[in-house]
Each structure stands twice: as C-alpha cells, then as structure tokens.
Design brief:
This protein is an alpha/beta fold. It is 52% helix and 8% strand. It contains 26 helices and twelve strands. Helix 4 links the parallel strand 3 and strand 4. Helix 15 packs across helix 20 and helix 22 crosses helix 24. The longest helix is centred in the last third of the chain and has 30 residues. The termini are far apart. One of its GO terms (biological process) is cellulose biosynthetic process.
Length: 730
C-alpha cells in the first residue's frame, strides 16, 4: 500500500472465534454420525417401517445441519472509509437511481410510501446526481396524488434535514423520535416543517377516506388526465410523470438548492398480458430510468423500507469505486431490519441470526444473495453484463441523459418502454433485468449474476441502513414464509438452481449456503414426522430412542443440548432476549409444519401442472385491536386458515398423547420404568406441548378477537382423536 499509494475504500475482517466454533462443529458432527450409526444398527423387529422413518428424518436433519455450516465456517464483516471516498471522488460521484416499488394502496398506504420516498430523496448526496422513481403497480391516482404532495413538501423537508443533519430522514419516523433537546432555532424550523407535514397528511388521508382526489388538485396538474372512466388497476395505459425534473436548474428547494429528480411510473397493464409482478415493474423502471437519468448505480427498496441512514449511498460506493477490489462487485446488499418489532419478537420477524450471522457467512463464501430490497446494483450487471478479464467499472463514461427535450416530450417518448408488448421477443426477464417465472425473483436474479462471475458484498453498518415493517399477525408471517420457501424450492428444481447452474461457477460454500434456503420447504416432512410419530408411539409405549441407561443416549443428548445452546448463544450475540429466542423456536416449528408444508405441496403440484404460484403482497397495516394485541405480545389466531388447522391439530395431538400417558402412568404406578424406556419421547412431546401454550390459550381460554376460531379448534381435536385411534389399532 505504501509503495503504490493505494488506500482501500473498504476492508474485510474475519469474525473472531471461528476456530473454537469449528471444534464445536466437529464434535457435533461426530454426535450426528453416532446417531446415524445407532439407527442403522438397532433396527427393531416391531415397527420396522416407523424406525426407518426415524432414520430418514435424522439423516435429513444431519444433512441439513451440514449445509448450515456454510453460514458459519468463514464469517466476515466489512468496514468502509467514506472520508477516502470524498477525498478521491467528491466532485466526480456517479449518478444514482433509486427505485421504490408499491402495488396496492389499500395494503401499502400512500403515507407510508411517500415517507419512504422522502427519506431517500434526502440522502446526503449531490441532488443533481440523485433520481427517485416510484413504481405504482396499483395504478392508483391516490398514490400519484400523495407523491405530488410529497414533491411539494420535499422543498421544505430536504433543506431541513441537510441543515440540521437529522436522522432518520423519513418524516414520520423522525417526528416519532425524541426531539425534546433541540436548540431554539431548530425547534422553530421543526415546528414549521411538522405543520406542513400534518397538513399534507390530512389532505392525503381525506382523499383516501373519500375515495377521490380534490378537484383543485386535479385541475392543477396535467398528470390526473391520465386516469379516466375506462382505467382500472389491471387495465390502463402507461402513466409516466416527471414531478421534479432534475435537469431543470429552476427545480430548487426553499433555500435555492437543487432538488433530486422525482418520477412516477404506472406501467401499462392489460388483462390479456401477464405482468410478472415486481420483477416486471423493476424491469420497466430499469428501461425508463435509462432514458431519464441513466444512473450507473441503482438502489431498490420496498415501499415500507425507509432509509434510516443518510450515508448509505456513500457506504455502497466504497465497494463499487475501490480501484483494486471493486471491479467485480455487482451488488451491495444491506440487511432487512424492522422498526415495529416487539421486545421479544413475537413472530421472530427480525431474522436477526440470518442478518447478523448467516449473511456474514455467505459473504465469506463469495457474497450474499439479493433479497429484493435495500440493495445497490450496478446497472450494467443487472442488464446482463458478464465479468471478463480486466473488467472495469467506468461510471464516468456512462451515457448522460438528453437535455434538449421538455419533461412532457421526454415522458411521451419514454413511456413506450413500459408498455405490455415492449419485452416481446427480447431477453428481458431472461438474460436482462430481473428474471421471470419465480415468486422470489430477487434471489434467482442475484444467483444468476453471481454465476456470471460477479461478486456481491454484504454491509451491516452500526446505524441500520433501512427499516421496514414486520408482519404483525401470525397469518401474515406464515403466508410470507410460504411464498419465500416456495420460490426458493422452485429455484432449486429449475435449471437456474445453485447446484445445476452454480457448480464450477461460484464457490461451493456459497452453493451450500443457497441450498439452506432452497431446502426450507422440504424440511417440513422430517419435522412433521418427528412431531407426530414419537408422540403416537409414546401413547403405545413403544420406545423410538435409546434407554436412559444406554451408551447410545449420549450422542442424542449431546446433539440436542449442543444445537440449542449454540442457537441460544447466537441469538444472544445478535442482541436478542431469552424469551425472544423461545418465540423464535416456536416460529421455527410453526413455519416448518405449515408454511413450508403448503409451499412444498404447491411446488410439486405446479410441477405436474395443477397449481400456479401468484405474488402475495404482505399487508403493511393492521386493525387497532390487532396492533394492540401485537404490542402486548399476544399471538393472533383469529383467521380461519388451513395453516392454523395443521398447527392446532399437531398441538392437540401432542397434548392428548402426553395427557393420556401421564394418566396411564399414574394409574399403573410405573413411573420409573417408563422414565427409563421412553424418556426422550416424553421430553420431545412435553417440549411440543410447552411451545404450544399460546395456541392452547387461544383455543380454550381467550375471549378476544385473536382467539382460535371454534371451527378450527373442533377440527383439530377431531383430527388428533382420529390419529390416536388409528395408532391404537396398528
């Protein structure tokens, strides 16, 4: 470094303690192998098929545990040097295009959407090099009206943010934060800008309540003429409106400073054309933005994921612009974090172990996956460029947008790029842009980029880059994980999967890391088997595990204690609580026995032509009663759902089995002998009952609207009784 004068813009460090973990992992592997040996050498004559089923389940658990070691074997973390970036490139920074995607104003409220938009417009970055695009796949005039209001408020909000250096720069989040210790001058400005925000909020919410836009607003802006009586959410022309034209030197805030470009896009929708959900919206944005601003760097965020760190762009650029190590970086992924989590994370929504441990491990194997939000991309790699020897990121040579056209002329020329028919007979959705045909278009797109030779980087700064909204009901959480796990399994089974497409192209550890997520849904079968069969055979008095006095009990005990102790330690290291970890274990069980089950079934049905996956938008708002129960950490079981029927049936089965066994033990007075022969089965059944206490409470005791529907409770009891009866006759 001293000889060449090269000072890196970022550095990579290994996480400490990897050697100790590797020793522990080696001992765990020995324990797993001993369990396999026990199953293979102690097959019982009675219940041979059941015993072999246990063997297969344990083979699967062991195999899957081995895959997860790719996340922990070589963990790294990154540190950026933004001061060096400023010294080197402050006057020559690349243009950045930011994509915000929304799809339904009823599920994703316009006020939430524009708070995200305003937060990214206020980045600590030259405004003339910043362009923000809102893709509205709902084609809603209400969303357009909200964005129009935001474009006016931005003239006051952006200078306030930059003058006082506030964080976060989402107005709603900032106003909710503590602002009691402000200096008099800032407090005065805050009161003024807050009053403007409240006025904007009232106008938008009134329009939302009335279901129509004020006539004065309709007459003031030509954009509203694009909505007519023939337009609908799924049948309308392309609507492209440049609300703030960054090329216009007169587009300034109240302090006379330039404003970022702000664009609204509702791509053309026709009933006879499949629109490819978010992937289609992103590809339309890539094409449209190439003619308006053509930033060589693209950031995409979900509409609920506001910017929490005004320097995130500069952090990302440290990876792209590093002269030595940035040449092969295709995208920089920030973690998903959430601002509405309860203290003990009722639904395990933080995914803290994934974000703080597993993605560090992926980063050490070649880079994290693309998770669809909070990700900075190079435009050329998104458009299909392959990595070649000597590839350089020459952002200075990226074509500048035209300047001779008016905004209206530019809109008219460019809107064809967002038409339904533009992609016909092109490589869009195949080799260019985000890939089509998968519910998790982000993951498969990131994998294909990595298979073209590019690397990705994971950056988890101390101040979180983005904060979003986690699900506030059990149903929302399970449905979301059903979509994710179904899409990941489809990737594994496709020609674009990490095994078929990645071998020889990406690091083998990265292939293993991808397979951990791609095999989420098949986990359901082994988990269901372990949740049902040992309890039923406990009812029959047939042992499926070694006796307490046997040597073979030791590997089972060691693996069980070791795995859960390691899991608890990881959770604590990530800042979680003991009760939060317990909630995480419950959600682990619930996802594997419901979300993943339905995902696996739907995927296999789709393979034979009986099912077709659709994109499900997770609700970002909840009723007041639901929100109150969520804040009190009461699980929500109020919906009638087949997933709840499965969960409740398993819970009732284990409760029934444990109760019957205890009653029989007390009557027969054989506590010691039972303890000797079926101790692990009783422990397993008891833990399953304990982990389901909130479900029993919702089924039998609660009176609020979040209780389990009576029909679901009755069905689950009947299913449990039926299974117990069938077992008794076998």
């Amino acid at each position: 470094m001293a000889n060449t004068g090269y000072a890196p813009l970022f550095e990579t460090k290994k996480v400490k303690g990897s050697f100790i973990y590797k020793l522990f992992a080696a001992s765990m592997f020995v324990g797993i192998v001993l369990i396999w040996i026990y199953r293979a050498t102690h097959v019982t004559e009675h219940g041979r098929l059941v015993w072999m089923g246990m063997f297969v389940a344990e083979l699967w658990f062991g195999f899957y545990w081995i895959l997860t070691q790719a996340h922990r074997w070589n963990r790294v973390y990154r540190q950026t040097f933004k001061d060096r970036l400023s010294q080197r490139y402050e006057n020559d920074l690349p243009r950045v295009d930011i994509f915000v995607c929304t799809a339904d104003p009823t599920i994703e409220p316009p006020m939430m959407v524009i708070n995200t938009v305003l937060s990214v417009m206020a980045y600590d970055y030259p405004p003339e090099k910043l362009s923000v695009y809102l893709s509205d796949d709902g084609g809603s005039d209400l969303t357009f009206y909200a964005l129009l209001e935001a474009s006016r408020f931005a003239k006051h909000w952006i200078p306030y943010c930059k003058r006082f250096g506030v964080e976060p720069r989402s107005p709603d989040a900032y106003f909710r934060s503590d602002s009691d210790e402000l200096e008099a001058i800032q407090a005065q400005h805050l009161a003024s800008v807050k009053k403007l925000y409240q006025g904007m909020e009232e106008r938008i919410e009134l329009a939302e309540k009335l279901g129509k836009i004020p006539k004065t607003a309709v007459l003031e802006h030509r954009g509203f003429s694009k909505w007519d009586s023939f337009s609908s959410r799924r049948d309308h022309d392309t609507i492209l409106q440049i609300l703030i034209d960054g090329r216009d030197v007169e587009a300034k805030d109240i302090e006379g400073c330039r404003l970022p470009t702000l664009v609204y896009l509702a791509r053309e929708k026709r009933p006879r054309h499949f629109h490819n959900f978010k992937a289609g919206a992103m590809n339309a944005l890539i094409r449209v933005s190439s003619e308006i601003s053509n930033g060589p760097i693209i950031l995409n965020v979900d509409c609920d994921m506001y910017s929490n760190n005004s320097e995130s762009i500069r952090d990302a650029l440290c990876f792209f612009l590093d002269e030595e190590k940035g040449r092969d970086v295709a995208f920089v992924q920030f973690p998903q974090n959430f601002h509405n989590l309860t203290k003990n994370e009722l639904y395990g929504g933080s995914m803290r172990v994934i974000g703080q441990i597993e993605f560090q491990g992926l980063d050490g194997c070649g880079g994290p996956m693309y998770i669809g939000t909070g990700c900075f991309h190079r435009r050329d790699t998104l458009c299909g460029r392959k990595l070649t020897k000597g590839s350089m990121f020459d952002w200075k040579q990226s074509t500048a947008p035209r300047t001779g056209e008016s905004a209206a002329e530019l809109e008219e020329r460019v809107k064809e790029l967002a038409s339904c028919t533009f992609e016909k007979n092109t490589q869009w959705g195949k080799e260019m842009g985000l890939k089509y045909g998968c519910p998790v278009e982000d993951v498969i797109t990131g994998l294909s980029i990595q298979c073209r030779g590019w690397k990705s980087m994971y950056f988890n700064p101390e101040r979180k880059g983005f904060l979003g909204v986690a699900g506030t009901t059990l149903d929302q959480t399970l449905v979301q994980h059903k979509r994710w796990s179904e899409g990941d399994l489809q990737i594994l089974l496709s020609k674009h999967g990490p095994v078929w497409n990645g071998l020889g192209r990406i690091n083998f550890g990265l292939i293993m890391g991808y397979c951990v997520y791609c095999l989420w849904s098949p986990n359901c079968f082994a988990t269901l088997y372990y949740s049902i069969i040992p309890s039923l055979y406990l009812l029959k008095g047939h042992p499926l595990f070694p006796q307490v006095s046997s040597f073979w009990i030791l590997p089972f005990v060691y693996v069980i204690i070791g795995e859960h102790a390691c899991s608890l330690a990881e959770y604590f290291c990530c800042g979680g609580t003991a009760l939060g970890w317990w909630n995480e274990q419950r959600m682990w069980l619930y996802k594997r026995t419901s979300s993943y089950l339905f995902a696996a079934v739907d995927t296999f049905l789709k393979l034979v032509g009986y099912s077709d996956s659709g994109f499900v938008i997770s609700a970002k708002v909840s009723d007041t009663d639901v929100s109150e129960r969520y804040e009190q950490e009461k699980m929500e079981f109020g919906a009638v759902s087949p997933m709840f029927t499965v969960l409740s049936s398993l819970a009732m089965l284990n409760l029934l089995c444990l109760a019957v066994v205890f009653v029989n033990m007390i009557r027969a007075g054989v506590l010691e002998s039972v303890h000797e022969t079926v101790a692990l089965q009783m422990l397993l059944c008891g833990v399953l009952v304990l982990i389901n206490l909130p479900l029993y409470d919702a089924a039998f005791f609660r009176k609020d609207k979040g209780r389990m529907p009576s029909s679901v409770t009755l069905q689950s009891i009947l299913v449990a009784l039926l299974l117990c009866s069938c077992c008794a006759f076998l």
